[in-house]
Design brief:
This protein is an all-beta fold and 386 residues long. The chain has one domain (32-385): Peptidase/esterase 'gauge' domain (Methylamine Dehydrogenase, Chain H, 7 Propeller), CATH 2.130.10. Helices cover 0% and strands 42% of the residues. The chain has a 4-stranded antiparallel beta sheet with strand order 1-28-27-26, with no helix packed on it. Strands 2-3-4-5 form a 4-stranded antiparallel beta sheet, with no helix packed on it. Strands 6-7-8-9 form a 4-stranded antiparallel beta sheet, with no helix packed on it.
Length: 386
């Protein structure tokens, strides 16, 4: 997968929406902002009870997965020593307080791959990375692989299922050094240590599952091995239903970076897409897809040239971030066919020490979490809901 939180993206501003008359729109929602942490933190997930999950940076520079709830922060630790790093990198959609993510372990990777985790966690010694599940009152539980070394967990649902990707023991010729082992999309659970491999698009060898809902729908990517960080691994965006893989077709025909980030309970999917001629992933517009309306590129903020749609709630509100030609990142919310910079919707006195740069998740109450330019994790609460 691509380095969603820090990569500088530049892209062709393609949109599929007609202009909306300002007079036909409801007044914009404003937000009251609560700062959760300012220690190199990031809020990446918020459930419908307001539990936020993400990460924060320790004085040792290690990154630790963390949850914030009822005004308190809990360090989830790691699957190894405290000096190692962990993270809740993806929006995690369930009502049980279950959190899933990635953590380094004390074991060392014999292949020194770096793996997908190295784009989100500092890992100078090539420690093994594994997916984990955390449940309230418990501790991190490591998730099994397909016999290979590394794994990566993204989301968990109310059925006790978690999705992600895991290595097997196959030395894949489509891998690009330092990646060696093949990886496949998987579902863990509902029983502990239970793992199921998902099928790929015909002709593909590798893939990853990125999100799921309670209806048995899972989304992710299918392609070649590459370096296990998107690119050709995301030749095809995929939705899995009843054990079958169906391609979510990018209408521009690009065969890389087609990555769903989230699926809601209605089956609406959001993510980012490749652009023809841009195999390096420097041009990635955000998109939304469902079976009724098909694929649509979301409109960008004025002056921005690329973006990532990171999450969608059951009200159809989408959040994400985009950048201008200089690489400056801007957080946004898309609703009523309009994309709006979140920084322009905040009430005074927010306590921010820098502008919001990434909006990463939104729950069904419309509460948004993300991170600022100065490393503050936050929750933005709609004023209308207070």
């Amino acid at each position: 997968m691509r380095q969603i939180a820090t990569v500088i993206i530049a892209a062709a501003g393609i949109t599929g929406f007609a202009q909306v008359s300002p007079a036909a729109l409801p007044p914009p929602t404003t937000y009251n902002l609560t700062v959760l942490s300012g220690a190199g933190a990031s809020g990446n997930s918020i459930d419908d009870f307001g539990l936020v999950a993400g990460s924060y940076t320790l004085a040792s520079s290690a990154l630790h997965a963390s949850v914030w709830a009822f005004g308190s922060q809990l360090d989830l630790g790691t699957l190894g020593s405290a000096a190692l790093s962990s993270n809740v990198q993806w929006p995690v959609k369930n009502s049980l307080g279950i959190v899933s993510g990635i953590s380094l372990t004390d074991a060392l990777d014999p292949n020194k791959e770096g793996w997908s985790c190295s784009y989100f966690l500092p890992n100078p010694n090539f420690n093994v990375c594994r997916g984990f599940v955390w449940e309230p009152g418990g501790k991190m539980r490591p998730l099994p692989t397909l016999g290979g070394t590394n794994g990566f967990a993204t989301g968990s649902n109310d059925l006790g299922e978690t999705v992600g990707w895991a290595e097997n023991t196959v030395h894949d010729s489509s891998c690009v050094f330092p990646q060696v082992l093949q990886f496949r999309p998987v579902v863990w659970g509902p029983r502990h240590d239970e793992i199921h491999e998902l099928p790929l698009i015909a002709g593909d060898d590798d893939g990853a599952a990125t999100a799921l809902n309670d209806r048995g729908q899972i989304v992710g990517i299918s392609g070649a091995c590459g370096i296990a960080v998107g690119g050709v691994s995301a030749a095809h965006a995929v939705i899995w239903e009843n054990g079958f893989a169906t391609e979510i077709v990018n209408p521009n025909g690009a065969l890389y970076w087609n990555t769903p980030m989230m699926i809601n309970a209605r089956g609406d999917v959001v993510g980012f897409a490749g652009v023809p001629g841009d195999a390096a992933g420097n041009f990635t517009p955000p998109f939304m897809w469902n079976r009724k309306d098909g694929w649509v590129f979301l409109p960008l903020l004025a002056g921005d040239i690329a973006g990532v749609a990171t999450s969608i709630n059951n009200r159809g509100q989408v959040v994400g971030y985009s950048n201008d030609a200089s690489g400056a990142l801007h957080p946004w919310i898309w609703q009523h066919g309009v994309t709006t910079n979140l920084n322009g919707l905040l009430e005074p006195g927010s306590g921010l020490t820098g502008p919001i740069v990434i909006a990463f998740d939104i729950n069904d109450r419309g509460e948004i979490t993300g991170t600022t330019a100065t490393g503050q994790a936050f929750v933005a609460t709609p004023v209308e809901s207070r």
